[in-house]
Amino acid sequence: GNSVTQMEGPVTLSEEAFLTINCTYTATGYPSLFWYVQYPGEGLQLLLKATKADDKGSNKGFEATYRKETTSFHLEKGSVQVSDSAVYFCAGRAGTALIFGKGTTLSVSS
Amino acid sequence: GAVVSQHPSRVICKSGTSVKIECRSLDFQATTMFWYRQFPKQSLMLMATSNEGSKATYEQGVEKDKFLINHASLTLSTLTVTSAHPEDSSFYICSAWDSQQETQYFGPGTRLLVL
Description:
By secondary structure, chain A is an all-beta fold. Chain A has no helices and 12 strands.
């Protein structure tokens, strides 16, 4: 069946460090892929998305490229800020429902 | 961008009572909405898919008689937790599918505490 696997956290970084959160998917075909972010006590916000192979989604300095050959959609940011501290979820679309990874907690210190 | 609201944001109720949570898409029509449940420090668990004008589709293990879903219009879905018990305490999150944007937008969540 369809599944999304992302690296387990927590990830602890200093401000301005480089961030990578790995995400791979298993699916029939090539689903649209998403990264969502959840700040403490809040719901999920769409961070970025890619709908087909080689698409790059980007937003707020975050990027992720849909790699068909490695079935991956890794999230990257060149210089993280304290305000980026949150839980990040990778997701793939199966039909109209989303399949979520388990989430990765990012903690950025100044 | 698209906005999905939930009401209430937080509710405390006594065991045995019923609680209704509303989910609205504010600037787009959603024929499909979803209800998720999230336990502390865990991922979202899809409970059911709510389809406008028809019965909801529940995921395996979710009691449809306990979690009543109504999707009466293209902008509103409701989840009613009937005869709530302490084990129903959780963070409930709805989302709405925007077919034009091919994106699912999430509400801010409702924290339910059953005493």
